[in-house]
Amino acid sequence: MVYGCKQEQTTDKAGTQTTNDSATVLAARASDKMLPAKERILLAKRALKAASVQKNTIESRNALNKIALQFYYLKEDREVRRTLELVIEKSASARDSLNIAKAYNTQGNQYINSQLNDSAYFFFLKSEKLLSKLRDSIALGKNYIDKAFVQLYESDYSGCELSCIQALGYYKNSTEWQSQYDAFTLIGISSNELKNYDNALIYHNKALDFVNKYPVISNSKIHYRSSTYNNMGYVYQNLNKNKEAIQNFKNGLAEKELITDNPYVYAALLDNLAYSKFKLKDYSELPDLFYESLKIRKANQLFSGVVASNLHLSQFYSATNDTLKARQTAAEALAVGKTTQITGDVLDALKQLSIVDHTNASKYSKEYITITDSVQSEERKAKDKFARIAYETDEILVEKDKLAEQNRSLLYYFVGTLLIGLLLFVIRSQRAKNRELLLIQAQQKANEEIYSLMISQQETIEESRVKEKKRIAQELHDGVLGRLFGARLNLDSLNKFSDEDSVSSRFNYLSELKNIEQDIREISHDLNREKYVLINNFIAIVNNLLEEQKSSFSPSLTSFIDESIKWDVVSNTLKINLYRILQESLQNINKYANAKNIKITIRKDNESVILDIIDDGAGFDVDTRKKGIGLQNMLSRVAECKGVLDVKSEKGKGTAITVKIPIEKV
């Protein structure tokens, strides 16, 4: 009865604009039913590939939904799922609720084909919720029609009627003739099942008016007119108005090329015509009409039709007292019904067998009662299941809204926490920078104090040098020069005499000159020593540090200072930092190293001063050891002088520190 309602609908809406992108063009070509199915599948796959790499635009999403529909019509279930996943993913990222709703609708239709009606109903409800918010009346009406099919298949006839009435409300003043025809037909079928025959005839007549009025329906190869005549004839059969039923069946069979285009409807009309004739006890053309219908149904694997034809034949043979054929055809109907697992067909076959097979009537009746009770229970469950699915869908939507609100709250919380954390990090970093700046300032102040001390020391040395110069000048003037002058005068006077006393006196004065020479040599040596001390004042400070190390601590210390280094041209900053690095290194060795030997070398390499400090102490792991403030200070001092600090150490193998600083001349 429902054949011809749930069919492919590919007619574009009036005014729909298509883009020239390849996905849209390929999708349109794939919908051409004049092409072979294999070619349409290939075109749809090419369209999917093109759409998947395009930018996420409304055109590409619309094309993907159309591609999914083509795969659905072509029964390519795997490709349908792939395409719908892509539609939902792209639509969700673009917040395109309409295309998500359309994807849910297609998913629901696919579940109908897989006979998973509860899943289909769930997806139609999800689509309905989205479409209701969007107020897309056409899409919402179609979704109600699709939901009505599920309700019809699950025997929820009242729910089916309600869904169709809701759909018709959305189709007012629309040109969706096909969908309105489907709604009228479904209401007619549901009313017939609810034994509301008058209402069934009213809606089947409305469906027939649509077929006669609109060519888009009447010219279809599905032959909707014949389907509607068949539905109306079936209602008249239930009313026991078989003459009217026969007339409707004949009207349906009058359609040209019906057997070729829609053998299902043709076979149903033949069988129903024969059955109405049988009920009127008009056995003309019987059982030939039954067998002709059965033959078509078997050829097209219309198994429910095969069951119906065999049951009608069984009733015919029972009425004509051919008990054997009556049992055979009823048994064949039961076998086919059990193969297809269609409960209604099985029940009808059991009922007929309990009538024609008297020997096993009790067995068939018990099985019939058992299945009937089960069917009634399942029908109640189905109705409850749909109500539960609707309720749970609403609950899911409410939970979704709650989760969305919670997610927003969490987002605000995390953003706030992040901002606070960032603020605290900035404050902490600023404080660290301030501390670093204070340390640098303190270090600069200490360097200035050291420099001042060295300047003061230099001034003291200079003052001492000046005093020493005065002393030497006085010595030369008062001592050496006077003695030289006296010796010279005396020698001049003795040159006039050659006696023995004069000769002796000259020897004495010559001896005096030797003494004066020795005095001058000593004064010269003193002057040279003073210059050396003045030039090597930094060396003296370093030597004092090394001497203090030797006298105060147990490790043996050896040192070498390159004499080629001209310390008088080396900047005070370099000397101060070099001295402090040496001092810090010795302190670390004394505190932690437990060394027995220390070797210190200060040497020159091209235009750089190199300080090597080597000990044979405990050592440490350079990679894992945290850099203490002492090592940080060394790095800071080396960096200040634009130098390089290299620390090599292993546990139990001592430590080697090398400092290389370029010489910046004063």
Please provide a written account of the structure:
This protein has 24 helices and five strands. The chain is mainly alpha-helical and 666 residues long. Among the domains are: 388-535, no CATH class; 553-662, Heat Shock Protein 90, CATH 3.30.565.10. It has a five-stranded mixed β-sheet, with helices on one face. Strand 1 (556-561), helix 23 and strand 2 form a beta-alpha-beta unit.
Strand order of the largest sheet: 1-2-3-5-4
Structural class: mainly alpha
Q: Regions with pLDDT < 50 over 5+ consecutive residues?
A: 7-20, 530-535
The largest β sheet comes out as: 5 strands, mixed
Number of helices in the DSSP assignment? 24
Chain-wise SSE layout:
Layout: H1 22-30, H2 37-53, H3 58-73, H4 77-93, H5 97-113, H6 117-134, H7 137-153, H8 157-170, H9 177-193, H10 197-213, H11 215-218, H12 224-238, H13 242-253, H14 258-261, H15 263-279, H16 288-299, H17 303-319, H18 323-340, H19 343-356, H20 361-494, H21 500-535, H22 537-552, E1 556-561, H23 572-593, E2 597-605, E3 608-615, H24 629-640, E4 644-649, E5 655-662
Parallel strand pairs: 1-2
Antiparallel strand pairs: 2-3, 3-5, 4-5
Helix pairs in contact: 1-2, 1-3, 2-3, 3-4, 3-5, 4-5, 5-6, 5-7, 6-7, 6-20, 7-8, 7-9, 8-9, 9-10, 9-12, 10-12, 12-13, 12-15, 13-15, 15-16, 15-17, 16-17, 17-18, 17-19, 18-19, 19-20, 20-21, 22-23, 23-24
